[in-house]
Specification:
One of its GO terms (cellular component) is mitochondrial inner membrane. The protein has a domain at 69-169. 62% of the residues lie in helices and 2% in strands. It contains three helices and two strands, in the order αββαα. It has helices spanning 2-13, 71-109, 116-169; strands spanning 22-23, 35-36. Strands 1-2 form a two-stranded antiparallel ribbon. The radius of gyration is 24 Å and the shape is elongated.
Length: 170
């Protein structure tokens, strides 16, 4: 009897919610694999194995009872997390597009009869200039990404703390 209570108490203190986020295929431009969050209203539908009728709306979006005490914090966390992903995707898509355009112009400027060493040298010079040219932009992006990532982590920690308090004290 005691071990059962103990295991139930340990399970009630378990901090991670039961969800499985999905990872999509690489984006052809940004080369990032998008995360499909399964704890959001836009999540892919779960299988209908219990024979329930299909509904024209996502019933997961609506709840019968009052919203949870953490509803606003959960929503803020999910929005910040998706905004961070969008920032990351946008930056790398733009950066890779500009890089590929610059690389193509360098390769187009080299005559067809050029040796492989000449092409390699031109590309290495382009890459060296590219790194110097992009340094400031990369630093601005990195600072912004770190700041937003810390905000998402802090929100997630606050949310989990509130959930833990709710489990313990009701």
């Amino acid at each position: 009897m005691f071990p059962r209570r103990c295991s139930q108490f340990r399970r009630s203190l378990h901090l991670s919610p039961k969800c499985q986020h999905l990872v999509g295929p690489n984006d052809p431009v940004s080369n990032l694999r998008p995360i499909i969050y399964t704890d959001t209203p836009n999540s892919p539908p779960k299988s209908n194995s219990q024979g329930k009728l299909n509904h024209p709306y996502s019933l997961q979006e609506f709840s019968d009872g009052p919203p949870s005490p953490n509803h606003a914090l959960e929503l803020q966390y999910k929005l910040k997390r998706e905004q961070l992903d969008a920032l990351n995707h946008k930056y790398w898509a733009e950066s890779n597009t500009r890089f590929e355009a610059g690389k193509a112009s360098v390769l187009a400027s080299i005559p067809e009869s050029a040796s492989p060493e000449t092409r390699e040298h031109a590309l290495s010079e382009f890459l060296k200039k590219w790194v110097v040219q992009e340094r400031d932009r990369q630093e601005v992006y990195s600072t912004e990404w770190r700041t937003r990532n810390f905000e998402v982590i802090a929100l997630g920690a606050r949310l989990e703390y509130h959930r833990l308090k709710q489990r313990i004290f009701g």
